[in-house]
Amino acid sequence: MTFHTHHHEQVAEELYDIFESSFDEIFVTDAHGTVIMVNSACEQYYGLSKSDFVGKHVRELEEQGIFYPSASLQVIESKQALEIVQKTDKSRYLHVRARPIFYKNGKLKSVISYSRDLTDLMELSHQVDKMEQQIEFYKRELVQTQSDITGIIVHSDKMKKVFQFIERVSVVDTTILILGETGVGKSRIARLMHDRSSRKTKPYYEVNCAALPETLIEAELFGYEGGAFTGGLKQGKKGLIEKANCGTLFLDEVGELSLSAQSKLLHVLQEKKVRPIGGTKEIKLDIRIVAATNQPLEEMVKKGTFRRDLYYRLNVIPLYIPPLRERREEIIPLVHHFLTVFNERYNRNVEFSPKVFEAFLKGEWPGNIREIENMVERLVVTSERIVTIRDVPFLQQETYTSAHLSLHQKLEELECRLIQEAYEEFGSSYKVAEELGISQSSAIRKIQKYTRGIE
Protein backbone atom coordinates (compact mmCIF):
# COMPACT_ATOMS: atom_id res chain seq x y z
CA MET A 1 0.00 0.00 0.00
CA THR A 2 2.87 2.33 0.86
CA PHE A 3 4.40 1.59 -2.50
CA HIS A 4 1.05 2.34 -4.17
CA THR A 5 0.72 5.71 -2.42
CA HIS A 6 4.33 6.54 -3.23
CA HIS A 7 3.67 5.62 -6.87
CA HIS A 8 0.63 7.98 -6.99
CA GLU A 9 2.68 10.80 -5.48
CA GLN A 10 5.42 10.24 -8.07
CA VAL A 11 2.90 10.30 -10.95
CA ALA A 12 1.27 13.45 -9.55
CA GLU A 13 4.70 15.09 -9.25
CA GLU A 14 5.60 14.18 -12.83
CA LEU A 15 2.24 15.47 -14.12
CA TYR A 16 2.80 18.72 -12.23
CA ASP A 17 6.29 19.03 -13.82
CA ILE A 18 4.77 18.56 -17.28
CA PHE A 19 2.06 21.14 -16.46
CA GLU A 20 4.64 23.65 -15.19
CA SER A 21 7.22 23.24 -17.97
CA SER A 22 4.72 23.58 -20.85
CA PHE A 23 5.67 26.22 -23.43
CA ASP A 24 1.98 27.09 -23.63
CA GLU A 25 0.13 28.88 -20.89
CA ILE A 26 -2.33 26.42 -19.28
CA PHE A 27 -5.33 28.05 -17.64
CA VAL A 28 -8.03 25.95 -15.90
CA THR A 29 -11.41 27.18 -14.66
CA ASP A 30 -14.35 25.38 -13.05
CA ALA A 31 -17.74 25.09 -14.76
CA HIS A 32 -18.71 28.57 -13.53
CA GLY A 33 -15.58 30.39 -14.75
CA THR A 34 -13.58 30.60 -11.51
CA VAL A 35 -9.85 29.98 -12.02
CA ILE A 36 -8.70 26.71 -10.41
CA MET A 37 -5.06 26.59 -11.52
CA VAL A 38 -2.57 28.19 -13.91
CA ASN A 39 1.00 27.33 -14.83
CA SER A 40 4.06 29.61 -14.67
CA ALA A 41 3.82 30.56 -18.39
CA CYS A 42 0.74 32.50 -17.29
CA GLU A 43 2.90 34.72 -15.06
CA GLN A 44 5.23 35.50 -17.98
CA TYR A 45 2.37 36.40 -20.33
CA TYR A 46 0.60 38.79 -17.98
CA GLY A 47 3.39 39.89 -15.59
CA LEU A 48 1.28 38.74 -12.60
CA SER A 49 1.68 35.98 -10.01
CA LYS A 50 -0.48 32.84 -9.90
CA SER A 51 -2.25 34.16 -6.79
CA ASP A 52 -3.59 37.04 -8.91
CA PHE A 53 -5.54 34.48 -10.94
CA VAL A 54 -6.49 31.53 -8.74
CA GLY A 55 -9.91 32.00 -7.12
CA LYS A 56 -10.84 34.90 -9.39
CA HIS A 57 -13.69 34.76 -11.90
CA VAL A 58 -12.58 35.18 -15.54
CA ARG A 59 -15.12 37.96 -16.06
CA GLU A 60 -13.39 39.91 -13.28
CA LEU A 61 -10.01 39.40 -15.00
CA GLU A 62 -11.58 40.44 -18.31
CA GLU A 63 -13.09 43.49 -16.57
CA GLN A 64 -9.64 44.51 -15.29
CA GLY A 65 -8.44 44.33 -18.90
CA ILE A 66 -5.85 41.62 -18.09
CA PHE A 67 -7.03 39.80 -21.21
CA TYR A 68 -9.84 40.17 -23.72
CA PRO A 69 -11.96 38.34 -24.74
CA SER A 70 -12.27 35.39 -22.32
CA ALA A 71 -12.19 32.04 -24.13
CA SER A 72 -13.37 30.16 -21.00
CA LEU A 73 -16.62 32.15 -20.84
CA GLN A 74 -17.37 31.36 -24.47
CA VAL A 75 -16.76 27.63 -23.85
CA ILE A 76 -18.99 27.66 -20.72
CA GLU A 77 -21.70 29.29 -22.84
CA SER A 78 -21.39 27.07 -25.95
CA LYS A 79 -20.09 23.80 -24.32
CA GLN A 80 -17.80 23.49 -27.38
CA ALA A 81 -14.06 23.84 -27.98
CA LEU A 82 -12.93 27.01 -29.74
CA GLU A 83 -9.91 28.95 -30.96
CA ILE A 84 -9.61 32.72 -30.59
CA VAL A 85 -7.02 35.49 -30.72
CA GLN A 86 -6.79 37.29 -27.38
CA LYS A 87 -5.12 40.57 -26.46
CA THR A 88 -3.45 41.12 -23.06
CA ASP A 89 -3.11 44.40 -21.20
CA LYS A 90 0.60 44.26 -22.12
CA SER A 91 -0.49 44.61 -25.80
CA ARG A 92 0.54 41.04 -26.59
CA TYR A 93 -1.53 38.76 -28.83
CA LEU A 94 -2.22 35.19 -27.73
CA HIS A 95 -3.56 32.28 -29.78
CA VAL A 96 -5.95 30.56 -27.35
CA ARG A 97 -7.45 27.08 -27.72
CA ALA A 98 -10.04 26.25 -25.07
CA ARG A 99 -11.92 22.99 -24.54
CA PRO A 100 -14.67 21.82 -22.16
CA ILE A 101 -14.16 18.79 -19.84
CA PHE A 102 -17.31 16.89 -18.88
CA TYR A 103 -18.28 14.47 -16.10
CA LYS A 104 -19.50 11.03 -17.16
CA ASN A 105 -23.11 12.24 -16.78
CA GLY A 106 -22.44 14.93 -19.42
CA LYS A 107 -22.36 17.86 -16.97
CA LEU A 108 -19.61 20.45 -17.49
CA LYS A 109 -16.71 19.87 -15.09
CA SER A 110 -14.09 22.44 -16.11
CA VAL A 111 -12.57 24.39 -18.99
CA ILE A 112 -8.89 24.09 -19.99
CA SER A 113 -7.31 26.81 -22.15
CA TYR A 114 -3.92 26.57 -23.87
CA SER A 115 -2.44 29.90 -24.95
CA ARG A 116 0.58 30.60 -27.11
CA ASP A 117 2.15 34.04 -27.48
CA LEU A 118 1.92 35.11 -31.12
CA THR A 119 3.71 38.41 -30.51
CA ASP A 120 7.25 36.97 -30.42
CA LEU A 121 6.48 34.74 -33.39
CA MET A 122 5.25 37.72 -35.38
CA GLU A 123 8.23 39.85 -34.36
CA LEU A 124 10.65 37.01 -35.20
CA SER A 125 8.98 36.54 -38.59
CA HIS A 126 9.33 40.28 -39.19
CA GLN A 127 13.04 40.24 -38.21
CA VAL A 128 13.77 37.32 -40.54
CA ASP A 129 12.00 39.18 -43.38
CA LYS A 130 14.09 42.29 -42.71
CA MET A 131 17.37 40.31 -42.66
CA GLU A 132 16.48 38.51 -45.89
CA GLN A 133 15.64 41.83 -47.55
CA GLN A 134 19.03 43.25 -46.51
CA ILE A 135 20.89 40.19 -47.82
CA GLU A 136 19.00 40.40 -51.12
CA PHE A 137 19.78 44.12 -51.36
CA TYR A 138 23.52 43.60 -50.90
CA LYS A 139 23.59 40.60 -53.22
CA ARG A 140 22.28 42.63 -56.13
CA GLU A 141 20.85 46.10 -56.48
CA LEU A 142 17.25 45.23 -57.04
CA VAL A 143 14.40 47.62 -57.70
CA GLN A 144 11.70 46.26 -55.41
CA THR A 145 8.29 46.09 -56.99
CA GLN A 146 5.14 46.21 -54.91
CA SER A 147 4.62 42.46 -55.23
CA ASP A 148 8.02 41.83 -53.63
CA ILE A 149 6.64 42.65 -50.19
CA THR A 150 4.48 39.54 -50.15
CA GLY A 151 5.86 37.54 -47.23
CA ILE A 152 6.64 33.90 -47.77
CA ILE A 153 5.40 32.56 -44.46
CA VAL A 154 5.67 28.85 -43.89
CA HIS A 155 3.92 27.56 -40.77
CA SER A 156 1.68 24.84 -42.22
CA ASP A 157 2.64 21.26 -43.06
CA LYS A 158 1.26 21.78 -46.59
CA MET A 159 3.60 24.70 -47.28
CA LYS A 160 6.57 22.97 -45.61
CA LYS A 161 6.09 20.15 -48.16
CA VAL A 162 5.90 22.71 -50.99
CA PHE A 163 9.19 24.25 -49.85
CA GLN A 164 10.92 20.87 -49.49
CA PHE A 165 9.82 20.21 -53.09
CA ILE A 166 11.18 23.64 -54.18
CA GLU A 167 14.55 22.86 -52.57
CA ARG A 168 14.75 19.64 -54.63
CA VAL A 169 13.64 21.01 -58.01
CA SER A 170 15.41 24.42 -57.90
CA VAL A 171 18.79 22.80 -58.61
CA VAL A 172 17.66 21.07 -61.82
CA ASP A 173 16.78 22.80 -65.09
CA THR A 174 13.51 21.02 -65.78
CA THR A 175 10.48 23.07 -66.77
CA ILE A 176 8.13 23.62 -63.81
CA LEU A 177 4.39 24.33 -63.98
CA ILE A 178 3.11 26.09 -60.85
CA LEU A 179 -0.61 25.51 -60.27
CA GLY A 180 -2.83 27.37 -57.84
CA GLU A 181 -5.54 29.97 -57.38
CA THR A 182 -5.00 33.67 -58.02
CA GLY A 183 -3.01 35.33 -55.25
CA VAL A 184 -1.43 32.24 -53.64
CA GLY A 185 2.07 33.58 -54.31
CA LYS A 186 3.01 31.79 -57.57
CA SER A 187 5.27 34.59 -58.85
CA ARG A 188 7.04 34.83 -55.49
CA ILE A 189 7.72 31.09 -55.58
CA ALA A 190 9.02 31.28 -59.17
CA ARG A 191 11.47 33.99 -58.07
CA LEU A 192 12.52 31.89 -55.08
CA MET A 193 13.24 28.92 -57.39
CA HIS A 194 15.49 31.15 -59.49
CA ASP A 195 17.29 32.47 -56.38
CA ARG A 196 17.91 28.91 -55.16
CA SER A 197 19.20 27.68 -58.52
CA SER A 198 22.67 27.78 -60.11
CA ARG A 199 21.27 30.56 -62.36
CA LYS A 200 20.74 32.93 -59.42
CA THR A 201 23.31 35.47 -60.65
CA LYS A 202 21.88 35.38 -64.19
CA PRO A 203 18.85 37.32 -65.55
CA TYR A 204 15.34 36.72 -64.25
CA TYR A 205 12.34 38.00 -66.20
CA GLU A 206 8.66 37.49 -65.71
CA VAL A 207 5.73 38.25 -67.96
CA ASN A 208 2.04 38.10 -67.14
CA CYS A 209 0.51 36.61 -70.28
CA ALA A 210 -2.95 37.89 -69.23
CA ALA A 211 -1.79 41.49 -68.84
CA LEU A 212 -0.74 42.04 -72.48
CA PRO A 213 -3.03 42.11 -75.53
CA GLU A 214 -2.67 39.16 -77.90
CA THR A 215 -1.10 41.40 -80.56
CA LEU A 216 1.76 42.44 -78.25
CA ILE A 217 2.50 39.25 -76.31
CA GLU A 218 4.41 37.58 -79.19
CA ALA A 219 6.52 40.68 -79.86
CA GLU A 220 7.22 40.93 -76.12
CA LEU A 221 8.22 37.28 -75.75
CA PHE A 222 9.99 36.51 -79.03
CA GLY A 223 11.18 39.99 -80.06
CA TYR A 224 11.18 41.28 -83.64
CA GLU A 225 13.51 42.50 -86.36
CA GLY A 226 13.48 46.12 -87.53
CA GLY A 227 10.56 46.81 -89.91
CA ALA A 228 8.84 43.54 -88.93
CA PHE A 229 5.53 45.32 -88.37
CA THR A 230 3.93 48.75 -88.34
CA GLY A 231 4.29 50.57 -85.04
CA GLY A 232 7.39 48.59 -84.02
CA LEU A 233 10.78 50.15 -83.25
CA LYS A 234 12.90 50.82 -86.36
CA GLN A 235 15.86 48.95 -84.91
CA GLY A 236 13.71 46.01 -83.74
CA LYS A 237 13.50 44.75 -80.17
CA LYS A 238 14.94 41.88 -78.15
CA GLY A 239 12.27 39.55 -76.75
CA LEU A 240 12.12 38.52 -73.11
CA ILE A 241 13.10 34.95 -74.00
CA GLU A 242 16.38 36.22 -75.49
CA LYS A 243 16.92 38.68 -72.62
CA ALA A 244 16.47 35.87 -70.07
CA ASN A 245 19.04 33.68 -71.85
CA CYS A 246 21.26 31.79 -69.33
CA GLY A 247 18.71 32.71 -66.64
CA THR A 248 15.04 32.07 -65.88
CA LEU A 249 11.86 33.20 -67.60
CA PHE A 250 8.63 33.06 -65.62
CA LEU A 251 5.45 32.91 -67.70
CA ASP A 252 2.54 33.79 -65.42
CA GLU A 253 -1.01 32.89 -66.55
CA VAL A 254 0.40 30.79 -69.40
CA GLY A 255 -3.14 29.60 -70.20
CA GLU A 256 -3.85 33.05 -71.67
CA LEU A 257 -1.40 32.62 -74.59
CA SER A 258 -2.90 32.53 -78.09
CA LEU A 259 -2.53 29.29 -80.06
CA SER A 260 0.02 31.04 -82.32
CA ALA A 261 2.17 32.08 -79.32
CA GLN A 262 1.75 28.56 -77.86
CA SER A 263 3.14 27.10 -81.07
CA LYS A 264 6.22 29.36 -80.95
CA LEU A 265 6.78 28.65 -77.26
CA LEU A 266 6.67 24.91 -77.95
CA HIS A 267 9.41 25.42 -80.57
CA VAL A 268 11.53 27.27 -77.98
CA LEU A 269 11.13 24.44 -75.47
CA GLN A 270 11.83 21.67 -78.00
CA GLU A 271 14.67 23.22 -80.00
CA LYS A 272 16.17 25.51 -77.32
CA LYS A 273 16.19 28.24 -79.98
CA VAL A 274 14.17 31.40 -80.60
CA ARG A 275 13.50 33.27 -83.85
CA PRO A 276 12.45 36.93 -83.60
CA ILE A 277 9.36 37.92 -85.62
CA GLY A 278 10.43 38.85 -89.15
CA GLY A 279 13.90 37.36 -88.59
CA THR A 280 15.61 34.48 -90.36
CA LYS A 281 18.34 33.69 -87.85
CA GLU A 282 17.63 31.56 -84.80
CA ILE A 283 19.28 32.38 -81.47
CA LYS A 284 20.54 29.47 -79.36
CA LEU A 285 19.20 29.38 -75.82
CA ASP A 286 20.21 28.06 -72.43
CA ILE A 287 17.11 29.02 -70.49
CA ARG A 288 14.90 27.68 -67.74
CA ILE A 289 11.17 28.19 -68.15
CA VAL A 290 8.86 28.30 -65.13
CA ALA A 291 5.17 28.68 -66.01
CA ALA A 292 2.11 29.23 -63.83
CA THR A 293 -1.63 29.08 -64.27
CA ASN A 294 -4.84 29.30 -62.27
CA GLN A 295 -6.77 27.73 -65.15
CA PRO A 296 -7.63 24.05 -65.70
CA LEU A 297 -5.22 23.44 -68.62
CA GLU A 298 -6.39 19.82 -69.02
CA GLU A 299 -9.94 21.05 -69.74
CA MET A 300 -8.56 23.68 -72.15
CA VAL A 301 -6.68 20.90 -73.96
CA LYS A 302 -9.95 18.96 -74.35
CA LYS A 303 -11.68 22.09 -75.69
CA GLY A 304 -8.81 22.75 -78.10
CA THR A 305 -7.86 26.16 -76.66
CA PHE A 306 -4.51 24.89 -75.35
CA ARG A 307 -2.06 22.75 -77.33
CA ARG A 308 -1.79 19.22 -75.98
CA ASP A 309 1.91 18.89 -76.89
CA LEU A 310 2.73 22.21 -75.12
CA TYR A 311 0.75 21.10 -72.06
CA TYR A 312 2.82 17.91 -71.80
CA ARG A 313 6.04 19.87 -72.35
CA LEU A 314 5.18 22.37 -69.57
CA ASN A 315 3.69 19.85 -67.16
CA VAL A 316 6.93 17.87 -66.64
CA ILE A 317 7.01 18.80 -62.93
CA PRO A 318 3.73 20.26 -61.65
CA LEU A 319 3.83 22.13 -58.33
CA TYR A 320 0.49 22.83 -56.63
CA ILE A 321 0.30 25.73 -54.16
CA PRO A 322 -2.64 25.22 -51.78
CA PRO A 323 -5.03 28.14 -51.19
CA LEU A 324 -4.79 30.08 -47.94
CA ARG A 325 -8.03 28.63 -46.53
CA GLU A 326 -6.25 25.22 -46.50
CA ARG A 327 -3.32 26.62 -44.47
CA ARG A 328 -4.99 28.90 -41.94
CA GLU A 329 -1.96 28.76 -39.61
CA GLU A 330 -0.35 31.28 -41.95
CA ILE A 331 -3.13 33.87 -41.93
CA ILE A 332 -2.32 35.65 -38.63
CA PRO A 333 1.47 35.87 -39.29
CA LEU A 334 0.70 37.14 -42.83
CA VAL A 335 -1.69 39.80 -41.53
CA HIS A 336 0.91 40.89 -39.00
CA HIS A 337 3.61 40.94 -41.69
CA PHE A 338 1.54 43.20 -43.97
CA LEU A 339 0.47 45.36 -41.03
CA THR A 340 4.15 46.01 -40.22
CA VAL A 341 5.06 46.61 -43.88
CA PHE A 342 2.25 49.10 -44.54
CA ASN A 343 2.66 50.87 -41.21
CA GLU A 344 6.29 51.48 -42.19
CA ARG A 345 5.43 52.42 -45.77
CA TYR A 346 2.75 54.97 -44.81
CA ASN A 347 4.39 56.06 -41.56
CA ARG A 348 1.36 54.90 -39.55
CA ASN A 349 1.00 53.04 -36.26
CA VAL A 350 -2.27 51.18 -36.84
CA GLU A 351 -3.17 48.22 -34.59
CA PHE A 352 -5.82 45.51 -35.07
CA SER A 353 -8.10 44.40 -32.23
CA PRO A 354 -8.28 40.65 -31.39
CA LYS A 355 -11.69 40.39 -33.09
CA VAL A 356 -10.20 41.76 -36.31
CA PHE A 357 -7.45 39.11 -36.23
CA GLU A 358 -10.20 36.53 -35.64
CA ALA A 359 -12.12 37.92 -38.60
CA PHE A 360 -9.06 37.42 -40.82
CA LEU A 361 -8.59 33.91 -39.41
CA LYS A 362 -12.19 32.91 -40.21
CA GLY A 363 -12.38 34.46 -43.69
CA GLU A 364 -12.48 32.35 -46.86
CA TRP A 365 -10.08 34.63 -48.86
CA PRO A 366 -10.84 33.59 -52.46
CA GLY A 367 -8.12 36.07 -53.54
CA ASN A 368 -5.66 34.45 -51.11
CA ILE A 369 -2.49 36.33 -50.03
CA ARG A 370 -3.06 39.18 -52.50
CA GLU A 371 -6.56 39.77 -51.13
CA ILE A 372 -5.27 39.87 -47.53
CA GLU A 373 -2.44 42.22 -48.60
CA ASN A 374 -4.94 44.59 -50.25
CA MET A 375 -7.31 44.45 -47.26
CA VAL A 376 -4.54 45.24 -44.73
CA GLU A 377 -3.23 48.09 -46.90
CA ARG A 378 -6.73 49.58 -47.18
CA LEU A 379 -7.26 49.37 -43.40
CA VAL A 380 -3.86 50.92 -42.64
CA VAL A 381 -4.48 53.81 -45.05
CA THR A 382 -8.11 54.55 -44.11
CA SER A 383 -8.46 53.62 -40.42
CA GLU A 384 -8.02 55.26 -37.05
CA ARG A 385 -5.15 54.02 -34.85
CA ILE A 386 -7.03 50.96 -33.57
CA VAL A 387 -9.06 48.96 -36.08
CA THR A 388 -12.08 47.24 -34.52
CA ILE A 389 -14.59 44.83 -36.03
CA ARG A 390 -16.87 47.65 -37.25
CA ASP A 391 -14.05 48.85 -39.55
CA VAL A 392 -13.92 45.48 -41.33
CA PRO A 393 -16.72 45.49 -43.92
CA PHE A 394 -16.51 41.79 -44.80
CA LEU A 395 -17.51 40.81 -41.25
CA GLN A 396 -20.24 43.36 -40.58
CA GLN A 397 -23.20 41.68 -38.96
CA GLU A 398 -26.60 41.92 -40.64
CA THR A 399 -27.99 45.41 -40.37
CA TYR A 400 -29.98 45.90 -37.22
CA THR A 401 -32.74 47.98 -38.84
CA SER A 402 -34.65 44.92 -40.07
CA ALA A 403 -38.12 46.04 -41.14
CA HIS A 404 -39.99 43.34 -39.20
CA LEU A 405 -38.52 44.24 -35.78
CA SER A 406 -40.44 46.32 -33.23
CA LEU A 407 -39.03 49.66 -32.07
CA HIS A 408 -38.02 48.03 -28.74
CA GLN A 409 -36.13 45.23 -30.57
CA LYS A 410 -34.42 47.72 -32.88
CA LEU A 411 -33.29 49.84 -29.94
CA GLU A 412 -32.04 46.75 -28.10
CA GLU A 413 -30.04 45.59 -31.15
CA LEU A 414 -28.56 49.07 -31.55
CA GLU A 415 -27.65 49.14 -27.84
CA CYS A 416 -26.10 45.66 -28.16
CA ARG A 417 -23.97 46.79 -31.12
CA LEU A 418 -22.81 49.96 -29.31
CA ILE A 419 -21.91 48.11 -26.09
CA GLN A 420 -20.03 45.33 -27.95
CA GLU A 421 -18.04 47.80 -30.05
CA ALA A 422 -17.23 50.08 -27.11
CA TYR A 423 -16.18 47.13 -24.90
CA GLU A 424 -14.01 45.69 -27.67
CA GLU A 425 -12.34 49.05 -28.20
CA PHE A 426 -11.83 50.10 -24.56
CA GLY A 427 -11.81 46.77 -22.68
CA SER A 428 -13.10 48.12 -19.33
CA SER A 429 -16.54 49.01 -17.96
CA TYR A 430 -15.22 52.32 -16.62
CA LYS A 431 -14.14 53.51 -20.08
CA VAL A 432 -17.34 52.17 -21.71
CA ALA A 433 -19.40 54.13 -19.16
CA GLU A 434 -17.36 57.26 -19.86
CA GLU A 435 -17.63 56.86 -23.64
CA LEU A 436 -21.40 56.22 -23.69
CA GLY A 437 -22.30 58.64 -20.86
CA ILE A 438 -23.84 56.01 -18.55
CA SER A 439 -23.04 54.92 -14.96
CA GLN A 440 -20.39 52.24 -14.43
CA SER A 441 -22.89 49.86 -12.77
CA SER A 442 -25.15 50.24 -15.82
CA ALA A 443 -22.15 49.63 -18.12
CA ILE A 444 -21.21 46.46 -16.18
CA ARG A 445 -24.80 45.18 -16.40
CA LYS A 446 -25.03 45.85 -20.14
CA ILE A 447 -21.58 44.35 -20.83
CA GLN A 448 -22.61 41.17 -19.01
CA LYS A 449 -25.87 41.10 -20.96
CA TYR A 450 -24.48 41.71 -24.43
CA THR A 451 -20.93 40.35 -24.55
CA ARG A 452 -21.59 36.90 -23.13
CA GLY A 453 -20.33 34.19 -25.46
CA ILE A 454 -19.81 36.42 -28.50
CA GLU A 455 -17.14 35.23 -30.86
Automatic annotation (TrEMBL):
Highest rank taxon of the organism: Bacteria
Keyword Membrane: no
A UniProt-annotated Pfam family: PAS_9
Matches recorded under SMART domains: AAA, PAS
Transmembrane segments: none
Coiled coil, from the record: 121-148
Gene Ontology BP annotations: regulation of DNA-templated transcription
Residue intervals of the PAC domain: 78-130
GO molecular function terms attached to this record: ATP binding; DNA binding
Domain Sigma-54 factor interaction, chain residue ranges per copy: 152-381
Domain PAS span(s) in chain numbering: 11-61
UniProt entry tagged with the keyword Nucleotide-binding: yes
UniProt keyword terms in alphabetical order: Aromatic hydrocarbons catabolism, ATP-binding, Coiled coil, Nucleotide-binding
PROSITE patterns referenced in this protein's UniProt entry, alphabetically: PAC (PS50113), PAS (PS50112), SIGMA54_INTERACT_1 (PS00675), SIGMA54_INTERACT_4 (PS50045)
Cross-referenced CDD domains: AAA, PAS
PANTHER family: C4-DICARBOXYLATE TRANSPORT TRANSCRIPTIONAL REGULATORY PROTEIN DCTD, TRANSCRIPTIONAL REGULATORY PROTEIN
Protein name (Swiss-Prot/TrEMBL): HTH-type transcriptional regulatory protein TyrR
UniProt organism field: Priestia filamentosa
